[in-house]
Amino acid sequence: MISKRDKRVVLVNTNVIEPLIAPIGLDYVAESLASEDFDVELLDLALAGDGWKDQIKSRLPDGLPRVVGVTFRNTDDCYMASGRSFLPVLKQIVGEVRSHTDAPLVIGGAGFSVMPELVLEEVGVDIGVWGEGEGSFGPLAERLLAGERIDDIPNLVFRGRDGWRRTAVSHASLALLPRRTRRFVDNEAYFRRGGQGSIETKRGCSQKCVYCADPVAKGRAQRLRPARAVAEEIEALLARGVDCLHVCDSEFNLPEHHARAVCEAIIERGLGGRVRWYVYASPVPFSPGLAGMMRRAGCVGIDFGADSGSDDQLKRLGRRHRAEDLAATAEACREAGLVFMYDILLGGPGETRETVRETITLMKRIEPDRVGVSAGVRLYPGTPLASALQDRDQARGVTGRNAGPDRNGTLLRPAFYVSEHLGDDIWSTVADLVGDDPRFFFANPAQPESNYNYNDNRLLVDAVARGHRGAYWDILRRLR
């Protein structure tokens, strides 16, 4: 039997962008590893600032640890105006880690799981964990330490003799995972420097949006956490002084019965007046009753994935709601006293100046607190949109600062689709329609002061340092 001393695992957080976002996945994986008798240490490079190389050097002495797990949260900033990839930073960190230890290196995380083989090939690592790591990383570490075969462990991507291999997908029951104490990550520091904590109530997304990478990275099957466990985790964060949270679910209100159960558990524990939280939500189903219950449970803001105000465009994007549903969500939120915004996605297949006009006109008519405008659709491998473009002429309609597939025909670098009906005119088309309406967050390269990119946003960083707390869109709303 391997002793605990020899079962030492170091988990490395590589997401160093600001404002800082707590690595919730590492917190959860560390909890599971500890329950399996591993000696777990977190090497958090985000908190190390410019001294992250010194942190690696001092914390990875020769011969230790036995296994290193590296998380990769985002492939890029998903922002056509900048097109910044985070792979160069990951590659630099992996190289630095390797210069100080010869321990087996394993990559995981949401960004990694979108395109695992491509990421592994790019950074020169041979093993990764796709999707959630709680049920797979512990057994993988045991096998690596013992020098045993790993091909029967689920959720792995690894280099075999004949190229990359994937093992069977398996989702651990979220009800059977260890209680989440949130004790491994320095959540207090992240709250001070990031302005919000994080929590999840479920995993997976069953929606059929043609562009979205969430089902690719997290699976289509929804796995629900017990509502009681969610409330207990909120209490654990409150005990650490973290009283403003962002729920990391793809869509909090899907399914609605689970959203209601979570709210009831929070209310029953008397937490509704102690915590403020924000969610992403689908425009359907969303009722006044659910809105009121969310508000009583402490919810203060909702970001709806609206995408478009054109019914034809919504159908092309694979969305279930229609334009009239957005007006109903606005009415329900106002009645409940919830601040709300719509994220719209312009430039998808079939988009025209008229459908863009239809969307902007609807937004102005129903008057949300804010509207986030994304121009250009980031292409991710495995999504219906990317597959459809590959079946046709892949370069057509693909644009961006780092445009198009790379030399190997992949979408590893940021590439964006813009409808051929809009082309290079998308910026001016949107700018003309939005005008000087302050409710619109629009990433117009000609107007950098309207920056809607959270990555290294100095306005946000400074606001959080001054004590602002909450979802970043709501902080920006208050600053304006």
CATH architectural category of the largest domain: Alpha-Beta Horseshoe
Low-confidence blocks of residues: 399-408
- 3D shape: globular
| CATH homologous superfamily designation of the largest domain | tm_1862 like domain
Number of helices: 19
Quick one: how many beta strands?
19
Q: What is the CATH class designation of the largest domain?
A: Alpha Beta
Number of domain units: 2
Please indicate the percent range of residues in DSSP E strands (runs of 2 or more). Answer: 15-25%
**Alpha-beta classification:** alpha/beta
Major sheet:
7 strands, mixed
Q: Please list the strands of the largest sheet in the order they lie side by side.
A: 2-1-3-4-5-6-7
Explained architecture:
There is one protein chain. The model is unreliable at 399-408 (pLDDT under 50). The protein has helices spanning 24-35, 45-48, 52-59, 87-98, 110-114, 116-123, 137-146, 187-194, 214-218, 227-238, 256-268, 288-296, 311-316, 323-336, 353-366, 384-391, 426-434, 458-465, 472-479, and strands at residues 8-13, 39-44, 67-71, 105-108, 127-129, 156-160, 163-166, 197-199, 202-203, 223-224, 244-247, 276-281, 299-307, 339-346, 370-375, 377-378, 398-399, 416-417, 440-442. Helices cover 36% and strands 17% of the residues. The protein has 480 residues and is of the alpha/beta class. The protein is globular. The chain is built from 19 helices and 19 strands. The strands form four sheets. The protein has a seven-stranded mixed sheet with strand order 2-1-3-4-5-6-7, sandwiched between helices. A seven-stranded parallel sheet has the order 8-11-12-13-14-15-19, with helices on both faces. It has two domains: 8-166, Rossmann fold (3-Layer(aba) Sandwich), CATH 3.40.50; 186-376 and 418-479, Alpha-Beta Horseshoe (pyruvate-formate lyase- activating enzyme), CATH 3.80.30. β11, α11 and β12 form a beta-alpha-beta unit. The N and C termini lie far apart (60 Å).
